[in-house]
Amino acid sequence: MSFYEKLKFNADGLIPAIIQEQSTGRVLMLAWMNRASLEKTMATGRTVFWSRSRQTFWMKGETSGHVQAVKEVAFDCDGDTLLIQVEQIGAACHEGYHSCFFRSVVDPGTGAYHVTEKQSQTPEEIYGKK
Amino acid sequence: MSFYEKLKFNADGLIPAIIQEQSTGRVLMLAWMNRASLEKTMATGRTVFWSRSRQTFWMKGETSGHVQAVKEVAFDCDGDTLLIQVEQIGAACHEGYHSCFFRSVVDPGTGAYHVTEKQSQTPEEIYGKK
């Protein structure tokens, strides 16, 4: 049986994909796929998402060069979430951090937070000045 | 500034929370929180989600005993996803696997998959016979 038959896309035809760096276990980002972008991901070995804001495909790294080579694709018990292991070239985050999850709460009472990693590049360095 | 001000809940008032086991880096599950369940999570140090199907709060482990002790709460660049590090007691998955992501694709062409971990308990052992 194909895993596609186990997947449940939401009312918009989308499924969330957690992207994890295989070599470090670091969770890098979460983005959304539709069936076609998942098929492109499987066929090319590069993550391809569906942009909800722009209503278009986007291959991760198509502008920045920060592509993700797919190493493993897992799916959860309910079939409504993907977990994709990748090798990340450069920074995953468009803000120039290795992971999009670069801020953590330090005080559960107030919700105060801090930045937990160094910014490796500025967005201008990645994408050029706008 | 509080991290609550950085978060964007979706049209249903929900935000996805990736749950990762801090000691192993294993991604255990993804579930949804609303603002109130996130506040309960922060206040109690145990993960509390919002069930979309039952439209109610559920503290992870309230029936099974398989609670999650919150170790760290991170959020992403867009403020629309949480990444919560936990200590997991017992199995995270209601099917008795340590992680809900216990199946992976083995053939990207056909989508054939296999089970990647041992089932530590059956659902009957966790929840009793129904």
Quick overview:
Chain A has 130 residues and is mostly beta strands.
Q: Would you mind describing this structure in some detail?
A:
Two copies of one chain form a homodimer. With 130 residues, chain A is mainly beta. The first copy, chain A, contains two helices and eight strands, in the order E-E-H-E-E-E-E-E-E-H. Chain A has a four-stranded mixed beta sheet, covered by helices on one side. In chain A, a hairpin with a 5-residue loop joins strand 1 and strand 2. The mean pLDDT of chain A is 95. At the A-B interface, strand 1, strand 2, strand 5 and strand 7 of A face strand 1, strand 2, strand 5 and strand 7 of B. Strand 5 of chain A pairs antiparallel with strand 7 of chain B, so a sheet runs across the interface.
Keywords:
homodimer, mainly beta, 130 residues, two-stranded antiparallel sheet, four-stranded mixed β-sheet, 2 helices
Shape of chain A: globular
What's the average pLDDT of chain A? 95
Largest contact between chains: A-B, 44 and 43 residues
Main β-sheet, spatial strand arrangement of chain A: 2-1-6-5
Described by its quaternary structure, the protein is homodimer
Counting DSSP H or I runs of 4 or more residues, the number of helices of chain A is 2
- Structural classification of chain A: mainly beta
